Amino acid sequence: MPNITPHPDEHTTLRTTKLAVVGAGAVGSTLAYAALMRGAARTVALMDINAAKVEAEVLDLSHGVQFVPEAQVIGSDDVSVCADADVVVVTAGAKQKPGQTRTELAGATIDLMKKILPGLVEAAPNAVYIMVTNPVDVVTYASLKISGLPPSQMFGSGTVLDTSRLRFLIAQHCGVAVRNVHAYIAGEHGDTEIPLWDSATIGGVPLLEWNRQSEHHGPLNDGDRARIADEVVNSAYKIIEGKGATNYAVGLAGTRIIEAILTNEHSVLPVSSLLTDYYGISDVCLSVPSIVGRRGVYEQLQVPLSDAEYDGLKASADHLRAVAREFGF
């Protein structure tokens, strides 16, 4: 049998990718699973202070790697497992209880970031950091101050999930495929978020002009839009009340951001990043449609806003800035 020797550059030219997920709870483990299913990275590293939990999650995920795109799963309670990661997703944080607002979680989660971020940045200084822990906007702002990383390199998952919820509800009401709905939630990932109705479209048709005549799917009137916006804001509370945590959709949303980074897509996603003179809004992390690629956030797009949308975005920024100040940031 001939001895087949690989070309000397065959392995050295292969660009491998490493994703580190910090926190092996409901969100972190689901995000790792989603990333494996979609083939987002060749190595998925889980890190959690609970050594038994992270070992169990790694074993469970590893036993299924035969059925997903080529990858390996590693894990530890030591930060070194995150070394040289391309993307670090931080899901660790205080768990949101039924009826508890996201901002009520801020203090405990920010204290945790003070403990874990210095070691993470030392282990993976060149990684793009995605914060996926609530309240994500305030935690992202505080984490930027704690870590010293540039705003392009560290940002929050923001309203990527909220936008997905919005598009799903619009598609359901109008009787179209979700992929043909282009609409964004901006501002806080939380109670002060706002839907950007003026720039929303379905298949190129402005949403405010949508007038499909159908037995089951009509136009979106003011009442419909108000109902949809309310459902987007409150759906997380409903899920938490019913099952204790949101994990599937946020895992998929986080994986979507990871893919945009690792494949350098320059996709437009409503992530939460530090704003500097965005329509006069500065010194706050909140979500606006932004170009995301291999180096993180490249640019925030100045989407046309109605007067009401601008007022809502500014109010959201003022609220988030006030919350950050409460915690000394």
Protein model, in words:
With 329 residues, this protein is of the alpha/beta class. It folds into two domains: 18-156, NAD(P)-binding Rossmann-like Domain (Rossmann fold), CATH 3.40.50; 160-326, Lactate dehydrogenase/glycoside hydrolase, family 4, C-terminal (L-2-Hydroxyisocaproate Dehydrogenase, Chain A, domain 2). It has helices at 26-38, 51-62, 106-123, 136-147, 160-174, 222-243, 248-262, 307-326, and strands at residues 18-22, 43-47, 72-76, 87-90, 128-131, 154-156, 181-182, 185-186, 194-195, 201-202, 205-206, 267-269, 272-275, 284-287, 290-293, 296-300. The strands form five sheets. A six-stranded parallel β-sheet has the order 3-2-1-4-5-6, with helices on both faces. A three-stranded antiparallel β-sheet has the order 7-10-11, with helices on one face. A three-stranded antiparallel β-sheet has the order 12-15-16. A hairpin with an 8-residue loop joins strand 13 (272-275) and strand 14 (284-287). Helix 3 (106-123) crosses helix 4 and helix 4 crosses helix 8 (307-326). The longest helix is centred in the last third of the chain and has 22 residues, at 222-243. It is globular and about 55 Å long. It catalyses: (S)-lactate + NAD(+) = pyruvate + NADH + H(+).
